[in-house]
Write a structure and sequence with these properties.
Layout (H helix, E strand, L loop, with lengths): L8 E8 L2 E8 L2 E8 L2 E8 L18 H4 L7 E4 L2 E2 L4 E11 L2 E10 L4 E9 L4 E10 L5 E16 L13 E6 L10 E5 L5 E4 L11 E6 L4 E8 L4 E8 L5 E9 L6 E3 L4 E3 L2 E8 L2 H16 L13 E4 L7 H14 L3 E4 L32 H10 L3 E6 L3 E2 L4 H5 L21 E2 L5 H18 L3 E5 L10 E4 L2 E4 L1 H18 L4 E5 L8 H4 L4 E3 L8 H9 L8 E5 L10 H5 L6 E5 L11 H24 L2 E4 L12 E7 L5 E8 L7 E4 L9 E6 L5 E5 H6 L2 E4 L6 E8 L2
Parallel strand pairs: 22-23, 22-33, 23-24, 24-27, 27-30, 30-31, 31-32, 32-33
Antiparallel strand pairs: 1-2, 2-3, 3-4, 5-6, 5-11, 7-8, 8-9, 9-10, 10-20, 10-21, 11-18, 11-19, 12-13, 12-15, 14-17, 15-16, 16-21, 17-18, 25-26, 28-29, 34-35, 35-36, 36-41, 37-40, 38-39, 38-41
Length: 724
Amino acid sequence: MFETTRLFSDAYMREEEGGLTFVYRGGMVSYVEALRGGSLHALDWNGAGFSPHSTTIPAIPQVRLGDYADRSFAFNLVVDGQRLHSHWRCDGFDVEERGSGIVTTLKLVHGVRPVEVLVKTQLDGTSVLTRWLEITNAGERDAAVSEISVMSGALGTTPRWRNHLRADSALWRLGYMEDHRWGYEGDFRWHDVRSGGQYITSRYGRERYRHPMFLLENRATGETFIGQFGYSGGYKFDFDLDDCGDSAHLCFAAGVAGYAPLRVLAPGETTVTPAMHIGMVYGGLDPAVNEMNRHIRHSVMTFGRGDVRIAPMETGIGPEMDMGTKEILSQIDAAAARGSDVFFLDASWYCPPDKTENDWLYYVGDWFPETERYDMTMAEIRDYCKGKGLKFGLWMEPERLGRDSRILKEHPEYCTYGYDDQIKGGVGGGGGMLDVSREDAAAWIEGQLIKFVDHYGLDMLRIDYNVGNWCSRAYVPRGEYMENSEYRYYENWYRILDTLRRTYPNLILENCASGGGRTDLGMLARVSHTWATDWQLAPRSFMITNGMTMCMPPEYLDRLAGGQNNHTVAEFDFQTRQLLFGRPSVGLLNPDLICCANPLQKDRATHIIELYNNVVRPMHATGSRVYHHTPDLGGNDPQGTGILELTSSDGGSAILGVFRLSDPDEAQTTVLFRGLDISKRYRLTMDNSGASAVISGYKLMNKGVTVNLPGALSSELLIAVEED
């Protein structure tokens, strides 16, 4: 397959008969919108590098406005109960260079309502574009925004589609994370798109574990769309398929979901919507995932590397055990000896000395305790850690107040209240969730974060979020309206994180939202990496690794071994090998903390860490690629065999993991590498035996390697390194 690292993007406006046409080109993708009769329509996508609007050939849009005008609007907006689809006029189209790409601004002014919209599009040279809206109330009274689809319209038309498929085949299939619960992150499934369409939506309450992404594959043409919505609150993807005629037409909408009104705008006030990231490629799931990863690396997750090597390995000790001074120092020593880069203390470090580790949730919010918990001060622990060559970090949950915290007693007004005027958001023993939609609460959290990093001299900050999302149920009076506070909540929360980023550009900032929550690109654009899950029990642990590597580049995805759920119910290598397909965090692998030392366990853990530092980490440094040989495992406690591959950007090295799941099928599996170079020769090492041989890339990719794994929850790792 031909590949290039070259980035290309441009955009232009054409005046044509009937109105204005806007063409956006990034990588090999061309996307076309048109302003016709006061409405902005999405008309066409092309993934082969062609602009459908040539200077010499008249354009023939894939979607004809006469038949599908009501489904082709490029965005949806409802203000004060009125759907603003028509009566827009263009007041300018600007193109601004930004980095190696561009950002375009289409200014639309409404002819009836006093509303202005800036349609913003970022093109970074990849085949993925980013779209958001900036909505301004240009009137003299408050305006209530009740519905926002940031991007919508036609995805394409497939003529004579029935001629290309078997009678029982659906034209489009849709892939997404099916389960929304904690511990089921990454539950990717394929579904046929039904005639009439279907939708994916988040749920209100605490369920924030379904990553807001989708994949759409056209079985007739090979076109594959990939989309991600950068928002931590409620979202909705809506797909409208009309395949009853000779041609099949697919439209979509992506936007904010929640009780209305989502946002009340004061006169002259502007809100910036979450961003939709969408691209199109040919070739199916993995080419789409790797192109989205290229976009994320280039334009989204650009924060937090500092002077730490790419994808640093972390070691932490948390509330699953009582953290005494002796144990902390022992863990620091072990982390340094294993080759970690960062050591952090998890929840409970701030508890009063007379409390146990199980009381950690009751004192959340008291980040500057009156009496230190340990025999050493936190400054002394930090200095000991740094003396071992490690970065130092602490856990914090800024959006919650524990039931016994001083802050809850001092500022109960900061909390979220329900319809019954009772404090909401406490988990496992009470307390409250801070209402970040309040400016005073938001200012307090921002001040606490700045003070926290300065006071403890932190290199790394681990931000957790264990509360229910009660803000979606809390309505706040705003002038003549009762506003759903969730949208404003995340406006303020993102602003707080942006301030933290600007203040500490080298801070390692980890998203750990109850272990696997809030992994959307709205959150990830503001952190250095994210926690994939707290769930460590096999075989589901592999399903999570498999699915979550479809959502973001692996170097930003933190995988844990030896933590909350431990790894004692599966073979040791089965769990630890999964670390190689992300960025590792290792906890409780120092045997002195559990029982007498087991030198074999220590040797095997050291081996995995060496593989990460010597083989995987160089891949991450240049942009690794991921290949999902078994993308849909068919259930959240999967059976059979899972296969995952990681390669360097130049195809010079690769690791391929074969994981027998529960109820294994055939003992033998033949695997074909996908990301190597057929013209190169590789030293292939089988990790279980250590046996190696030099084999051509052509043979590895076309003949394959046979792996024998007869038992459940066993694994093999194939390591291919280019031979000089």
